[in-house]
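Supplementary Note 2. Why include the ligand at all?

Several targets in our set were suspected to adopt different conformations when bound, so apo predictions alone were not considered sufficient. For every target with a known small-molecule partner we therefore ran a joint prediction. The input for uracil is given below.
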Amino acid sequence: MRLDKLLCECGKASRSEAGKLIRLGKVTVNGTVVKKADFKVDEHADKVTLGGCEVCYKKFTYIMLNKPEGYVSATDDPNEKTVLDLIDIEDRRKGLFPCGRLDKNTLGLVILTNDGEGAHYVLSPKHHVKKLYRFECQAPLSSEDVKNLENGIDIGGYFTKPCTINMEGLQSGTIALTEGKYHQIKRMLEAVDNKITYLERISFGDILLDPSLERGQWRYLTKDEESIFLRTGK
Ligand code: URA
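The joint prediction is reproduced in token form.
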């Protein structure tokens, strides 16, 4: 692996910052200063330091992406742009996949990881990890509709689990789900003769969509944010 990539994957710097730090002579590999960003290191065997502190290679990568419209939540697709296309090619670590799916026209928080077990944990309804969405719908939602949706509703052979809705007007609000069936929110609104006109995921457990990320931009999760996957607690 390239030395700048190792520093970046370990969350020590962005790719361009890593290059600068390396050129400034702040990085050693097995005790020797290395000034080439593309220097190849064995991430499992070589001892790398930055500013005198050892940099430990991380097995798993966790990325927060602010998904724009028009991208599918897949690793590859013959006809569509995928969320992986938004990650710079040199940062597209092997095995990276979107943790849960957002529809092509849904916006907002997507987490990409190569941690299959962690993703399975946070996606399982058993663990009650809440995914919060901001929505707008075509017609006013009555309080009875809200109650029915919150209690669970038949979306065509499947009865949804209880969820929480907070209305911010008659046709918009937030909805928190602990499960993720195909087109779930759209189908839930259809079940009360309504239609979603805007959908954005704004949080995933304690991980909030970073307001500094423009649509299409991404960053690595912080240590605190990662803890939901690693179940290390806060
Ligand atoms: N529910 C939907 O209908 N679509 C999404 O993208 C996410 C939840």
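Residues 137 and 196 are 4 Å apart (CA to CA). The longest strand covers residues 196-204. Comparable summaries for the other entries are listed in the accompanying table.
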